[in-house]
Design goal:
Layout: E1 3-5, E2 18-20, H1 23-30, E3 40-45, E4 51-56, E5 71-76, H2 87-90, H3 93-96, E6 99-104, H4 120-137, E7 154-160, H5 162-173, E8 180-184, H6 198-202
Parallel strand pairs: 5-6, 5-7, 7-8
Antiparallel strand pairs: 1-2, 3-4, 4-6
Length: 204
């Protein structure tokens, strides 16, 4: 059994997280020349040069689509995970109908570069820039020159676990990034020092 690095530069630098990954699964999920479940591997480069790996149901992953999808659904995984967490959702023909599905590896996970500083704000800013980039790529914020009327385009952010916490901050601090936020498997955050907790500290 081979071991696959899930976290290439973990938030906690004192240890590395390993999960078993068979050669077959590794080739299926991480061979960039292949299209797992009909998905396309792609990279988005942030303004400071960090590259975030993501997979998308759109075959033209690095070019604006000729026909804008009705929705763009962006999936944020938790800890310790990667885009592969969302395999079942990304394979859904129902979700793919009229929607571009995008599952990103958070900074330091999967195929994404790690950040020089891995604080909560650093991760949030990286994810924010990625979401803005996807909005631009799929014409959400651009001129309405595609077949699909701009008013019908929607961005939906789906977060699980740690991705849910990031999604909660986006919903609270930058709600204009998405029309809907679907957040699961994390506590509802009470943004008050009256109820101190590590989760509250993350959201300060």
């Amino acid at each position: 059994m081979n071991w696959h690095w899930v976290c290439s530069q973990p938030p906690i630098s004192t240890y590395w997280l390993l999960t078993p990954c068979s050669p077959t699964a590794q080739d299926k999920l991480w061979n960039l020349s292949k299209n797992p479940n009909g998905l396309t591997h792609a990279f988005y480069t942030l303004s400071h040069g960090i590259r975030l790996h993501y997979v998308t149901s759109d075959q033209r992953s690095n070019e604006p689509p000729k026909i804008a999808p009705k929705n763009v659904i962006i999936f944020l995984h938790g800890f310790p995970d990667s885009w592969a967490l969302w395999q079942s959702s990304l394979s859904s023909s129902t979700l793919r109908f009229g929607s571009a599905l995008v599952a990103v590896d958070l900074p330091g996970y999967g195929g994404s570069d790690g950040l020089e500083n891995h604080g909560a704000t650093d991760v949030l800013e990286a994810v924010t820039e990625f979401v803005v980039g996807m909005r631009e790529l799929y014409g959400i914020d651009g001129e309405d020159d595609m077949e699909m009327p701009k008013r019908e385009k929607r961005v939906i952010i789906v977060g699980h676990d740690w991705g849910c916490i990031i999604g909660s901050r986006l919903a609270a601090e930058a709600p204009q990034l998405a029309d809907r936020f679907i957040l699961s498997n994390a506590p509802h955050v009470r943004s008050s020092p009256t109820f101190p907790s590590p989760i509250w500290a993350f959201n300060r």
